[in-house]
Amino acid sequence: MMDFQTYRPLALRTAKMFPTLYENLRHAALGLITEVGEFATEVKRIAVYGKPQTEEMRLHMIEELGDTQWYVPLAMFAMGIESLPTISIKDISRQPVKTDNLADLALLLNGLSATVSMTVATSDFDLERNFVARSLGMLIFLIDECVAPLLGTTGDQMRAENIAKLRLRYHDKYSDQAAEARADKGGLDATVS
Ligand SMILES: [Mg+2]
Asked: What's the gap in Å between 61 CA and the centre of ligand 1?
């Protein structure tokens, strides 16, 4: 089982590291919004277009939430956040948002990712550290406690699958070449999510 603490160093091993806080946080912010967007794309097909959820869609949503989580340790590293604050459902649940509804949860995850984006854009990092830590804590909490059960999995399972995928791609360390080759996707290019 892969709790978030176990996952953190394993995820960071395959991160491309830039020399500055700004560049690393920008990488994390871009990653969070794009991966949550990939998850939200499937949610939209179900919630708006009325598509019945298939097994393929379920597995795709789980994969994208694993990808989403991968950027959390990077954002923490960039900002020097040592640990995530403890979050409870009361910190999140606001009417009329439903934490048992995939569409509402996608919006919450997007909003929390946007916090990191806004921090990069306004760049007062010392001031924003606690705010970002809280948003990242909420993001992991929502995935573990609300989204994962709706998709018939657990946060631990998603993180374990994410690391297994990255092992195929990078073995144990990031390289530009391996990122481009994407062995886990049979060499499909990076425009395939
Ligand atoms: Mg993805």
From this structure: 9
- Residues whose CB is less than 8 angstroms from the CB of residue 57 and which lie 6 or more positions away in sequence, other chains included: 42, 45, 46, 51
Name residues whose C-beta falls within 8 Å of residue 24's C-beta, 6 or more positions apart in sequence: 17, 18, 74, 77, 78
- What the block records as the tokens of 120 is 């990069």
CA distance 132 to 150: 26
Contacts of 123 (CB under 8 A, 6+ apart): 22
70 CA distance to ligand 1 centroid (A)? 10
- pLDDT mean for each 10 residues of the chain (193 residues): 94 93 95 98 97 97 98 96 92 73 95 92 81 95 96 97 89 78 72 59
- Measured in Å, residue 127 CA sits from the centre of ligand 1 at 30
Q: What is the pTM of this model?
A: 0.90
pLDDT of 191:
61
